[in-house]
Specification:
The complex is a heterodimer of chains A (about 120) and B (about 375).
Chain A (H helix, E strand, L loop, with lengths): L18 H11 L3 E2 H11 L8 H13 L3 E4 L9 H6 L2 E4 L1 H29 L1
Chain B lengths: L1 H14 L5 H25 L1 H37 L12 H13 L3 H30 L8 H27 L6 H25 L6 H24 L2 H22 L14 H17 L6 H28 L6 H21 L1 H6 L5
Helix pairs in contact in B: 1-2, 2-3, 3-4, 5-6, 5-7, 5-9, 5-10, 6-7, 7-8, 7-9, 8-9, 8-12, 9-10, 9-11, 9-12, 10-11, 11-12
The chains are: A mainly alpha (about 120), B mainly alpha (about 375).
């Protein structure tokens, strides 16, 4: 890759992640999933707080694909499954860069929590 | 229930058509499939969950469609900026994948010259539209408003408003697309058109005995003046050519508006007003020539528009002269010439004066 034309992208430039993006990446951390599985998982992970509509979900997936945080995996052809159905059932997986970004975000949240804990416990003492 | 779910899925399928084409092609099938699975699951959970899901989908659909269209517009303007070598520094913040996609798309554009030519044609359209609008209004009405049937009067107004509406939509599109080159003429023409429309509405209200208070008139004048100056400076900061296009269209629209003024009472010169259509064509030709020319040759269209405007002001003054004399009023021809010339020259002059500032900001000359 020509570094002058394409300067390296760092995980920090995408931080902090929005809540929906964080939960989507977190959902994919367990393995590849298709759109509906991500939708259900995000609702479960956020305890029902983050409810994604199909439009919002695919808008976020498109952005994450463009940013290189996730990859799209086409379904394999199998007997008895229509071509149209295969086209619809694409799965998404976390890329290595996406995993690093998620880890950086988790670290950032932990640092924030730690700072808050130190300050509040200091205030209590 | 199954019929209802099928119907909902079908309606959702239709609603996908409103997404931008690239998004639709990439995710349309998946969206439909996920919606079908989700709606079936929610229906199984009960009516409450199904209604809640539908409401969320409707809100999400509106937001996502709007967002994706805005994204598509931004991407197109970034690509056109990259094609013209005026890419913004923010481009460096784009991800590897997006820039690779943009580069692919730029390479795919096989005929940039053809595209530049069609952009210049689009840029030249507003004066022609405006002229045709005036001529059609006059031809349909055909005489003083109190002598023609009501339907003809309303039809003439409606037909005349269509080109103005198209110019307004074009200008709104140009603003939404963050000032593409072709958009400056549409914005210039729409600004003058809007100012004339407001002025005639204020005049009508005054004649009907409902004159606006002085503060309201002053506020309206200040608003138009500030918007005009802001747009002029914005265009000048983007180069002499763009500022010139803005000015040429504004001055041309102002010159053509004389043909609208001479069909108003008590003049009703419906014999002269149809001239606005061929004149509009000439103005458009001059805007096109300005967009295509470089160097000192751009002066020819500017001078030609100035001469045409001068002829239009003198013609209008001839029409008004008898009435003005009867009212003991002075001729407005000199203020009209000053205003028309200021509109015509302000863009290229400011564009030229701001050249050092553009260089300092790293913008194209």
């Amino acid at each position: 890759v020509n570094e002058e034309l394409f300067p390296p992208v760092t995980t920090e430039q995408y931080l902090p992640l929005s809540e929906a993006t964080f939960f989507i990446l977190l959902s994919l951390a367990g393995g590849p999933k298709h759109g509906y599985a991500i939708m259900k998982d995000v609702a479960e992970l956020s305890d029902g707080r983050v409810g994604l509509s199909t439009g919002t979900l695919y808008g976020a997936l498109k952005r994450l694909l463009e940013q290189g945080l996730i990859q799209r995996i086409p379904s394999k052809k199998s007997a008895g499954v229509a071509e149209e159905s295969i086209r619809s059932r694409k799965s998404y997986a976390l890329s290595r860069f996406g995993r690093r970004t998620l880890e950086s975000e988790v670290q950032r949240i932990e640092d924030l929590a730690e700072a808050a804990r130190l300050r509040t416990s200091g205030a209590n003492a | 229930v199954s019929t209802l779910l099928k119907l909902m899925t079908r309606i959702y399928g239709w609603s996908i058509a409103l997404y931008p084409s690239d998004f639709r092609q990439a995710f349309g099938d998946e969206l439909r499939w996920v919606f079908e699975l989700a709606v079936r699951d929610k229906a199984a959970e009960g009516w409450g969950r199904l209604i809640q899901f539908c409401l969320r989908e409707m809100a999400g659909w509106g937001k996502a469609v709007g967002h994706q269209h805005l994204e598509a517009i931004r991407r197109r303007s970034r690509i056109s900026g990259a094609d013209r070598g005026t890419a913004q520094p923010g481009l460096h913040r784009q991800s590897l994948m997006r820039r690779a996609a943009m580069a692919d798309e730029s390479q795919r554009s096989s005929a940039p010259r053809d595209r530049a030519n069609s952009n210049d044609v689009i840029a030249a359209l507003p004066p022609l539209l405006f002229g045709v609008g005036i001529a059609t209004t006059s031809l349909v009405r055909g005489g003083p408003w109190y002598t023609v049937p009501g339907w003809r009067l309303y039809l003439s107004v409606a037909i005349g408003l269509v080109p103005m509406l198209v110019i307004g939509i074009g200008a709104a599109l140009a603003l939404a697309r963050r000032f593409p080159d072709w958009g400056w003429t549409w914005i210039g023409a729409a600004l003058i058109g809007a100012a004339l429309l407001v002025q005639s509405l204020v005049g009508e209200a005054e004649e009907a005995g409902r004159a606006l208070p002085v503060w309201a008139e002053t506020t309206l004048t200040l608003i138009f003046f500030s918007v005009g100056v802001s747009l002029l400076v914005t265009s000048a900061m983007r180069g002499v050519r763009r500022a010139g296009l803005f000015s040429l269209a504004a001055a041309g629209t102002f010159g053509l508006s004389m043909y609208l003024a001479i069909i108003a009472g008590p003049f009703f010169r419906h014999d002269l007003a149809p001239l606005a259509a061929p004149l509009g064509l000439v103005y458009s030709g001059l805007v096109y020539a300005y967009a295509r020319k470089t160097g000192m040759s751009v002066l020819f269209p500017i001078v030609a528009v100035g001469v045409l405007n001068l002829a239009s002001f003198i013609l209008a003054n001839q029409v008004w002269s008898e009435w003005l004399a009867a009212q003991s009023r002075s001729s407005p021809v000199v203020p009209l010439i000053i205003l028309g010339t200021a509109l015509l020259l302000s863009g290229p002059t400011l564009g030229w004066l701001l050249r050092p500032l553009r260089t300092a900001f790293g913008r194209p000359a």
